[in-house]
Write a structure and sequence with these properties.
The complex is a heterodimer of chains A (409) and B (159).
Chain A lengths: L1 H15 L4 H14 L4 H25 L3 H44 L3 H18 L2 H12 L4 H8 L4 H10 L8 H15 L2 H13 L7 H33 L6 H47 L13 H19 L4 H26 L3 H4 L6 H27 L5
Helix pairs in contact in A: 1-6, 1-11, 2-9, 2-11, 2-12, 2-14, 3-9, 3-10, 3-11, 3-14, 3-16, 4-5, 4-10, 4-12, 4-13, 4-14, 5-12, 5-13, 6-12, 7-11, 7-12, 9-14, 9-16, 10-12, 11-12, 12-13, 14-16
Chain B lengths: L1 H27 L9 H30 L5 H23 L8 H27 L5 H21 L3
Helix pairs in contact in B: 2-3, 2-4, 2-5, 3-4, 4-5
The chains are: A mainly alpha (409), B mainly alpha (159).
Amino acid sequence: MKRYLQVALGILTAIGGFVDIGDLVTNAQVGARFGMSLGGVVVLGVLGICVYAEMSGRVAAVSGRATFDLVRERLGPRVGLLNLAASMAVTFLTFVAEIGGVALALELVSSVSEVLLVPFVGGLVWVILWRAKFSPMENTLGLAGLALVVFAVALWQLGPDWGALGHQLATADKPAGEAWTTYAYYAVALFGAAMTPYEVFFFSSGGVEERWTAKDLGVMRANVFIGFPLGGALSLAIAGCAALVLQPAGVTVDALGQVGLPVAVALGKVGVAVAVIGFVAATFGAACETGLGVGYSIAQYFGWQWGKFVKADRAAPFHAVLLLSSLAAVGVLLTSVDPIVVTELSVVFSALALPLTYFPILVVANDPDYLGEHTNDRLANLLGVFYLVVLSFLSAAALPLLVITKMGQ
Amino acid sequence: MGARARTPRVVAGLMAGVLIGLLVGLAGCGLVPSRPEADDWVASARQSLDDTASEVATVGLVVEQEQQDRLPASYAAVVAARSEAAAGTAADGITAQQPPDSKRQEYDAVAAALGDAADLVAETRIALVDHDTAAYPRLAERLSRMERRLAQLATSVGR
């Protein structure tokens, strides 16, 4: 019975923890402009994150060691450093966006300017990273993130023509009047949002924190193959709500408040209140994950003691990185940069860095010295290579599309 | 010997080139607004009109939901305030540029529409914050008209 509860809790937190500010904003933007025509990209991206999260989770469970630790050892310090620089830069940018996202969500209920809320949010995130235990933190925020299920309820309540939505999704029918370059730019952004590198690193480092062993592979796979796709379904629900309400109204999304308007149309005040709880939980949870992700990656690369399973004074450099990155993120946001713009940039730069962050995982997952009999099977390698090719293509296209479309205008 | 004598001249020539380049560059950073080509100006005007129309549509949707008491007051006020700021930014995007001579008349029409739209969004935000429910039906109608005006202008500009 305890085992079933453990599996259920893992799946629920995986669903609730899947959506972050990048998913919220990008899916709503895409739904409002392109309807469900780019939904297939979300499906493809979610399958991709499942493939690589399973690989990195397996590496953590079987070897008992986290990704950056092994990447440096297996591929050498130079490749390790390249891997670290690419994923760290994107993870930090995402960390900034998530803290800004929490502030934007709190602004919606407090009417206090997001800039004034940022130091408070940054301080709270740091205190949690410093003091809270790993599992209660992950479970509480993941479960609270389930409030975003309200978007699925709102979509159902809006009573769409499911056949028409499905047709848009299946045929990738670009709306007339939208340029192909803009369409491609948002496809890259959606992919970047779905396959954000920090999710994989956090997932595998979390496995080490929770002391997974080969016996936990089943639970880990249930989290990945059930939790992540259901989290991806929430992303599609957000896009669907935007397609049904914002697109016909002529609203293009440039603020978090606009993302919740379809919920108001469908479910009224109570729905909006639940959506705001979901916004806060999703962005706060992701802020903790990305903050830890920055600390994990640097500490694992340099071989420092890391993690929340050791006391803070025994992992002082790790906690110093957490503190400094929190301060730096708050500093960036205090320049009054728009967190939505940071989010848009973070998902595109995420796409740019994806091959550098995922290639080493594929190499390590094929090494019998670390994984013994649990190395990749043929299907995992086939999918892994397929996604690397796709990611390389998207990575090459990301910057030119960003410039040509002036960030999707 | 000859090469040595040439070296200071080359250096002096390079320095003069750098200084002239800097002066030209700094002159371009003056207070005179940028003067885009006609096609670039038209694209910029359309973008500003589209962006502003989206903000007008956003506050229109907010007013509609507020009329039915389906939005928390603070949420409505924050969304409207964000739209007001974004409409102002969109208007600045076009009014801060020096219009090409051939587009002067269109500039006047676009600037007037963007200004009127920004004013209307601000007026709506004031009504939402004051919870002036009596003003909502009239505002909803004006916002709807403004959306149509901006859309028509976006279609006709540059034609």
